[in-house]
Amino acid sequence: EAQVTQNPRYLITVTGKKLTVTCSQNMNHEYMSWYRQDPGLGLRQIYYSMNVEVTDKGDVPEGYKVSRKEKRNFPLILESPSPNQTSLYFCASRNYDYNEQFFGPGTRLTVL
Amino acid sequence: GENVEQHPSTLSVQEGDSAVIKCTYSDSASNYFPWYKQELGKGPQLIIDIRSNVGEKKDQRIAVTLNKTAKHFSLHITETQPEDSAVYFCAASKDGNNRLAFGKGNQVVVIP
User: pLDDT confidence of B82, banded at 50, 70, 90?
Assistant: First the structure.
């Protein structure tokens, strides 16, 4: 089944404790992206990647890092999480030639 | 950058009636306009999209219209059913730009 998977689905952590949210897709998509969803603010792009080793900032990149060492994986790294990063995070991917983005199921992160 | 706004934020309709959600965008160079549906606990899923060379597109009970002059596009759902209850996001982007700008979302509630 073609899909985007994220792990973990739920995470509660404390301020300053480094964490990684993994994202993997099995559709051989070149483009992958991370979004955060907050009430009243909709979906905002954090980082995106056009292909392996090619990443760029989205609208709200502060406090996040990403890497794209393999085509299928695009982990989101929070080196020192803070409470304002409490949010619902979505990973998405698409084929470079097509516009439709496929979203993962989301990761709900709470930073205490 | 592109700014996308959605109205109204919440829409309640009786089952069988029509629902219309309108979005406006700011960048006249944007040429791709998708609509995503997000059900509770899931990631957004593309339901219909339109490109700027087309004024209207229909898929069963769902249609999207685009007015390039006024820079707005609308989602029309006819004969609404309870399973249409969800959050709907509009978005805009332009070719060559890897960033998809989302609106804040509309909560649609279909009352049986």
Answer: very high
